[in-house]
Amino acid sequence: MPQTLTPHRASLLLQMLLQANVYVSIVLGMSYLIHMLIRLNQLWNLEGLSLMVAYILAVAAESLRLYAGYSVNLCTGATSTWLLLTATPCILLPTMVFLRLSSIGRGFWLRIISNAVFVLIALEVIVALVHFMIYKPHQKRSSNNNPLELEELGQQESPEELMSPSQSEQRRRLRGPPES
């Protein structure tokens, strides 16, 4: 049985924010790692061990969040959406806040880079909400109107004649090879 593929329009702005966030996250991870290595002899107490656990959780959650963000932007999938919606508020944000509070007064660079990560996360949320909540439903409504418009026009022209060459080519690709 052939599978039907639905075209998915990715948000270029969200893709650019995710790309920038990859680099900022790498810099953040390396900065906190260097910060912990400099203060290695102070890490062997409860606060230091909790700092190491928070660092590991933050790096893991950030990589999962970036993977889920790319997956949600580039293809449709409930698993990636679920991962994105649970990893960010439940794991990443609390660990980032803990890491930020634990480095107060110790590193100006860590505050700047963590602010950059928070700003990029906020921008990604805004762009994703605008793109997937406002743009996508409008696109579905307009695509649902096309069959009705074709029926109203009658059988005067076939649907392939009404479409542009690129749209008819895309429809042929989605249908798959003719069954014989």
Structure report:
This protein is mainly α. The chain is built from six helices and no strands. It has helices spanning 12-38, 46-74, 78-102, 108-153, 159-162, 165-175. The longest helix is centred in the last third of the chain and has 46 residues, at 108-153. The radius of gyration is 24 Å and the shape is elongated. The chain starts with 11 loop residues before the first helix and ends in a 5-residue tail after the last helix. It is 79% helix and 0% strand.
How would you summarize this macromolecular structure in one to three sentences?
The chain is an all-alpha fold and 180 residues long. Helices cover 79% and strands 0% of the residues.
Poorly predicted segments: 147-162
The overall strand count is 0
Largest β-sheet summary: none
> What is the structural class?
mainly alpha
Tally of individual helices: 6
Instruction: Assign a percent range to the helix content.
Output: over 70%
Q: What best-fitting shape do the alpha-carbon axes yield? A: elongated
* Gap between N and C termini: 13 Å
Q: What series of H and E elements makes up the topology?
A: HHHHHH
Q: What number is the mean pLDDT?
A: 77
Give the amount of beta strand, in percent.
Answer: under 5%
As a whole number of angstroms, the C-alpha radius of gyration is: 24 Å
